[in-house]
Automatic annotation (TrEMBL):
Coiled-coil intervals, chain numbering: none
Protein name per the record: Neurturin
Family: Belongs to the TGF-beta family. GDNF subfamily.
Domain of life: Eukaryota
Length: 203
């Protein structure tokens, strides 16, 4: 067994407790002097959560086919950006750029003109003479007929696969301007017909 008397230490006095409290306060003050871990502000968390909620709601509104088209378009944009040596493009463009593209896509079919050289026409003629080239540009969404809707449905159901068809009307010339005559670089005279558009429409 144990030899000698075993002394039990009494409860700490007020002096001891004050000294311990001072030591704990000093330790807490020393710990509080340490740099605190960076925390994200609640406002930033709320903004991040709201963006995630908007994106999730946007994705839930798409059908499976639309999601596949969106993913393939994003992959293609990323591949083009990487091949051109640029940086990664944003996943969702700004609303202002979307509105600008929407307005550009929905311009009506109309006649436009451009002054170009004969060599720029790509018809194999070498000449410095300039001509007024009129062309058709714009969309034809308002001219969609039952034929176009049915044709689009047949293509989506893969009833029509091999044929090269267009399931929507296209802005094309309905009539052509007068013939264009010019001299090439070797003083040879040429006349080109059906070069410039005179009237445009959705066909």
């Amino acid at each position: 067994m144990f030899s000698g008397n075993r002394d039990f230490s009494p409860l700490p006095s007020s002096r001891d407790s004050s000294s311990s409290s001072s030591s704990s306060s000093s330790s807490s003050s020393s710990s509080s002097s340490l740099p605190a871990a960076p925390r994200r502000s609640p406002r930033a968390l709320q903004r991040h959560g709201s963006l995630l909620a908007q994106y999730s709601a946007l994705l839930e509104s798409y059908t499976e086919g639309e999601l596949r088209q969106l993913i393939s378009a994003l992959v293609e944009r990323y591949r083009q950006a990487m091949n051109s040596g640029g940086h990664e493009l944003p996943l969702f463009p700004r609303a202002g750029s979307r509105r600008k593209r929407a307005r550009a896509r929905h311009k009506p079919c109309e006649l436009r003109e451009l002054e170009v050289s004969v060599s720029d026409l790509g018809l194999g003629y070498e000449s410095d003479e300039t001509v007024l080239f009129r062309y058709c540009s714009g969309t034809c969404d308002a001219a969609v007929r039952s034929y176009d809707l049915s044709l689009k449905s047949m293509r989506s159901r893969r009833k029509i696969r091999k044929e090269k068809i267009r399931a929507r009307p296209c802005c094309r010339p309905l009539a052509y301007d007068d013939d264009v005559s010019f001299l090439d670089s070797y003083n040879r005279y040429y006349t080109v017909n059906e070069l410039s558009a005179k009237e445009c429409g959705c066909v």
